[in-house]
Amino acid sequence: MTDTAQLAIFIRGVDENFTIHEELAALYPMKETTRGEDVFLSLKEVLQKYGLKFNNLAGIATDGAPSMVGKNEGLVALIRKHFDFSDTPLMQYHCIIHQVHLCAKKVNFEGVMKVVVKTVNFIKSKGLNHRDFQTFLEQMESEYGDVLYYSEVRWLSRGKMLDRVFQLKDEIKVFMSLKGKDILEFSDPDWLCDFGFLVDITKHLNNLNLQLQGKNNFIHDLFGKIRAFEMKLKLFKSQLKDQNFAHFPALKTCDPVSTERYVLTITDLETHFDSRFSDFKNNEFDMKVFYSPFNVCAEDVNETIQMELIDFQSNPSLKEKFTNTGLIEFYSKYLKQSEFPNIYKNALRMASL
């Protein structure tokens, strides 16, 4: 490994037969600078290599860095400057998994993380201490093994590490006391409640993060999972207000006197999810025309599709085929481009995202 920045270019495309291709097209070492222009030239080189045209680009997802989304000199701005997308506007997205990561950072219980990380680092820092702890756990007949290292880089490790330490908190408390490193927070009921809440909410965020990974997902599938999580946040907030810990088992074991702090944290999460995924919501009806065309109102969609959509929805044969076949199979076999050119075009765009 080196300190050289790496530019990963992942391409997802769809042909006229609705065959979807996904692959990591290139991994470029950015040896000197990582300006928007540098990224643009690297991307241009990759597209030329594969015989792909910028004008056929339906959407682009980035990590949101200034070199990617800068107003004048960012990658997206340069693409729009050099190529014509007047026929089909280029959709710009901030990577959905990265967005979730940024939202998760708003769950700021630094007082908990600082103590837990310090404790884990003490246990893991020296081989002797580490072996002593493993032996101690065996003597206590604990069902849990070695604690997990915390990594700032690997976000998922935070949830696993928190959960493991919480489950072992009594054993760790005694062990650290024997080492002359008493942890006062492990005897503080309020701190333990914060710890329990952080374990539970991080686990929920981790589950969402995992659901968003993998191949063969469509943009509406991913957005649907975000929508579902936003609904879960509303449920969490309502239940915690009523001291209902059905979905917060770690917090429940701490029996908190007040849940106001946790309700406010979830409210803050709701706000950030709503803000960060607004770009997806702006294209929600285009998605719905693709995955559920018979259940979208013509008045809600782009005017260029309205007439076609009414004709489409009034065709009983198409409705039957859509109901009884897979999404891509329907568009590849039964949707005639000559009859529904704009719906066909929208389907290609959505399938490529």
UniProtKB/TrEMBL annotation:
Superkingdom, taxonomy of origin: Eukaryota
InterPro entries named in the record: RNaseH-like_sf (IPR012337)
Protein name according to UniProt: General transcription factor II-I repeat domain-containing protein 2B
Taxonomic placement: Eukaryota, Metazoa, Ecdysozoa, Arthropoda, Hexapoda
